[in-house]
C-alpha cells in the first residue's frame, strides 16, 4: 500500500529532496541550497512539504511582510515532483498555505507565474486567484509574468 501524503512544516533534513524537486521543475531557474536555507529562516512554518513516509514529494514556500500596516503574503514557490503531479498535491499544499495565512490574519496573498505556465495558472484559478497585472520581461529569459492576487 502507498503511504499517505501529509502536509507538514519543512525541516533541514528535507533540503536534498526539495532541491531535487526544484531542479526537475524549474531547470535553469531553480533556486539553490543557500536560497532555500534563507527562505527557511525567513518563512519558518510557512515553508511546507507534502511527505509520504520519509519521502518528500512536493513543497510550497510563502513569505509574509507588513505593507501599509497590512499583513500581506507572497507565495514564493510551489513545485510537485514530476512523478506526483496531477494527484492533488499542489492543491493540498495551497489549501494548507491559505489556511495558515488566514490563521495569521494575513489580508492578501500575491504570486508571479510565467504566462506560458498553464498548469500553474489552472492551480491558482482553482483557488480564486485573480490577475492583478502583467509584468513584461519579468524572468531572466525575457518571458512575461502574470501577477495574481487573492484576498483572504
Ligand atoms: C503547478 C503544479 C504545482 C500543480 O501541482 P499538481 O499537484 O500537479 O496540481 P493538482 O493535482 O493539485 O491539480 C491542480 C489543478 O491543476 C490543473 N491540472 C492538473 N493537472 C493538469 C494537467 N495535466 N494539465 C493542465 N492542468 C492540470 C487542474 O485544474 C487541477 O485542478 P482539478 O484537478 O481539481 O481540476 C505542478 O504541476 C508543478 O510542480 N509544476 C512545475 C512547477 C511550477 O510550475 N510551479 C508553479 C510556479 S508559479
Short description:
By secondary structure, the protein is α+β, with helices and mostly antiparallel strands. Helix content is 31%, strand content 36%.
Give structural notes.
The protein is an alpha+beta fold and 152 residues long. Helices cover 31% and strands 36% of the residues. A 7-stranded mixed sheet has the order 1-2-3-4-5-7-6. The longest helix has 15 residues. The model has no long low-confidence stretch (mean pLDDT 95). Coenzyme A binds next to strand 4, helix 3 and helix 4.
Please supply descriptive tags for the structure shown above.
single chain, 152 residues, alpha+beta, Aminopeptidase, seven-stranded mixed sheet, 4 helices, 31% helix, globular
Q: How much β-strand is present in the residues? A: 35-45%
Count of distinct structural domains: 1
What is the helix/strand order? EHHEEEHEHEE
Q: What are the segments in which pLDDT stays under 50 over at least 5 consecutive residues?
A: none
Mean pLDDT: 95
Order of the strands making up the biggest sheet: 1-2-3-4-5-7-6
The N- to C-terminal Cα distance equals: 37 Å
Q: What is the CATH top level name? A: Alpha Beta
Question: What does the oligomeric state look like here?
Answer: single chain
- In the CATH hierarchy, what is the superfamily? Gcn5-related N-acetyltransferase (GNAT)
Largest sheet: 7 strands, mixed
